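#onboarding

Welcome to the new folks! Below is a worked example of what a typical request in this channel looks like: someone posts a single protein sequence, and someone else replies with the predicted structure as tokens. Don't worry about understanding the tokens yet, we'll cover that in week two.

Example request:
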Amino acid sequence: MSINRFLVRESDSLDAALKTMDANGLGLAFAVDGGGRLSGVIGASDIDATLARGGSFGGQVSSAMRPDPGGLPVDADPAQIAKRMNGKGYIVPLVDRERRPVDFVSPARMRRIPVAEPVLTGNELKYLSECVTTSWISSQGPFVRRFENEFARLIDARNALAVSNGTVALHLALLAFGIGPGDEVIVPDLTFAATANAVIHAGATPVIVDVGAESWNLDPEMVAAAITPRTRAIMPVHLYGQPAEMDALMELAERHGLIVIEDAAEAVGARYKGRPCGSIGHAGAFSFFSNKLITTGEGGMVVFQDAQIAERARILRDHGMNPGRRYWHDEVGYNYRLTNMQAAIGCAQVEQMGRFFTRKMEIAAAYRARLTGIDGLRLPTEIPGRVNSYWMFSVICDLARLGLARDDIVSRLANAGIETRPLFYPLHTMPPYRGYAGNREFPNASHLSDGGLSLPSSITLTDAEIDYICGVIARLYGTRRLVQRAASA
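Example response:
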């Protein structure tokens, strides 16, 4: 982004300055005098204060700007720049010998803040080296069973099977319970497509229902209304780490003789009334993709309450081969195995789970402290009895109040070097799944998806970066509010 996106003249109107600030997405502008020399900085809060003193949107930038924004020479060395920014998230203009702005530096230019990134600072390399030096690099090797056992202890599960990814974990769970053609599985409308894909791959029919407005997860009343004689299973998703209403769903399942398979791909560490998510239903599926709290690059885990069902899944995972008769296949199976190398990374990740989860909670608390009170921004609901693992700290933007589309907000934050992700599209809106929506309505999923945004949530996020992100969001909202006031003035 060019420095020109930030420049206004001292003689420009406050309305014109607002348009510049809104367009660059950072909620501020640098003022220049008649000779093009840097003379001040202006933000939404400065305009707000001027209006409170009786000023108007037609007033000049010079009436509201803060003089001497402290530009640095364009040839300033990195140490000077770092000292000026001081980890505070400042945007610093760079000027030539005549103090004309020619460039700027910002946290965005020093480091683009990702939504998520893996942390591999434990024993990952040590354990991988052991795999290589011992030649145990395929799915045969001691780390696979070790990873299964350690993960089972982590989430208080009885039987855990490591698999190649989270999608096949769901698929394997369905197959292990004999769910297939002619059966229906109830899934939430707001979820990643893998939830429905696994049902379709099993030959069953996904039945899409709306989610709750506060929990963003399966609404038990809507689930009850969708149950038919063909329903075999309910597949709640603990979306973005927020636990679903498991008591009500388990009660429904017991009453109707149904299987509950938890899609806990995003919920390692989340708890529902003291119980780890993924260990409450008849089966639970997890993902270890690189953006998850625990990663193996690709990979997943499926856990079962019933040991016999788990054993059938184990056989299906390995081509349907009879465990006591090598190369004898009792049924058509799959190659859904995890490699020893991936499992080695998983073991190192489990060892760090306590530190990872603690940092997730700190990041969520920091976002709440800084974003609470921004008019038109809705934070995740904290529901009594549930511990959200905050795989992603996701917010809902009031698009009508902002006068922006969600993708416009994404673009503005990207200009500031902040990577964000939109919430998932509702299943019922996408071509492969429309036929599974029936005549049901999906107002909650549609509203959440339209305005939903996931903020950077990696445990590598620093407190200074959180300050910067929240400052940009606050300025964006403040600027938009003033733009709308100016339009109606």
